[in-house]
Write a structure and sequence with these properties.
alpha+beta; Phospholipase A2; three-stranded mixed beta sheet; two-stranded antiparallel ribbon; 8 helices; about 40% helix; lipid metabolism; phospholipase A2; lipid degradation
Length: about 250
């Protein structure tokens, strides 16, 4: 979620002041190193390009102007890297997410279980809160006991039932702002698998590649609906697949 933290820095700056922040990195190399920590210039640029291609679907009139200001700031920062310019440092990324949301990103910072009251982030935070509260999750190996037959798969992040991830994407799409898109976009890159109770998979019938950092992912499965359902792993589709419900399956016996 490093890029989300980086975008959060820009949003904090936008909310806190309309003037350009003072203080520069001493060298362009320092700025590029910092930006690479957030996920690399190329990934940030890809996020901006992907949003541009679907902006009409992820836009709310109330926040259209604000989103455009944030996007312009991010584009300018990317250009500064390529032009060997400096970066105006105002807010450390570790504090930015905490300022903006309570539930998005690793962990949560809510004291009383409430989402942030900031109007721009409130609905996004609610999406993240509901996602965090998904009852079907795998954090530790012991969690597999609740899902008999599900093969063990090494993981870095918590993995959830596919229906919870699908609801998360739908919730963020309904919010329809640049930041909600960014949260969904990064999650779809960072997480590759979800699990679901479904008929046995026979083969992948359709797949898609985002052309960036992620591998090819299946977006449609042929399943044997003459057999009993079981717990199985499925790919989380890339955001550009535009799937609001997954896994998408077709039955062997129609």
């Amino acid at each position: 979620m490093q890029i989300i933290s980086f975008i959060s820095v820009i949003l904090v700056i936008r909310f806190s002041t309309s003037d350009q922040a003072e203080g520069n990195y001493e060298t362009s190399e320092e700025f590029e190193e910092q930006l690479n920590y957030f996920g690399s210039v190329e990934i940030l640029q890809s996020l901006l390009q992907d949003y541009a291609s679907v902006e009409d679907q992820w836009i709310t009139p109330e926040y259209k102007q604000f989103d455009r200001q944030v996007i312009n700031s991010l584009e300018n920062l990317v250009n500064e890297v390529y032009d060997n310019e400096s970066y105006h440092d105002a807010v450390k990324p570790s504090s930015a997410m905490r300022v903006l949301t309570n539930f998005c990103g690793p962990g949560n910072w809510s004291i009383d279980g409430e989402v942030t009251q900031n109007p721009y982030f409130q609905d996004i935070d609610l999406c993240c809160k509901k996602h965090d509260e998904c009852p079907d999750y795998i954090v530790k190996r012991k969690d597999y006991e609740r899902f008999p037959g599900l093969p063990y798969k090494p993981q870095i992040f918590t993995r959830l039932r596919c229906s919870c991830d699908a609801q998360f994407f739908s919730c963020l799409r309904d919010v329809a702002t640049f930041f909600s898109f960014a949260v969904a976009w990064i999650y779809s890159k960072a997480q590759m698998f979800c699990f679901e109770h479904e008929y046995p998979v026979l083969e992948c019938t359709q797949s898609i590649n985002d052309g960036l950092i992620s591998t090819t992912r299946c977006i449609e499965y042929l399943v044997d609906n003459s057999s009993a359902k079981s717990w199985q792993w499925f790919h989380i589709p890339h955001l550009n697949a535009n799937l609001t419900c997954f896994p998408s399956v077709i039955y062997k016996d129609q």
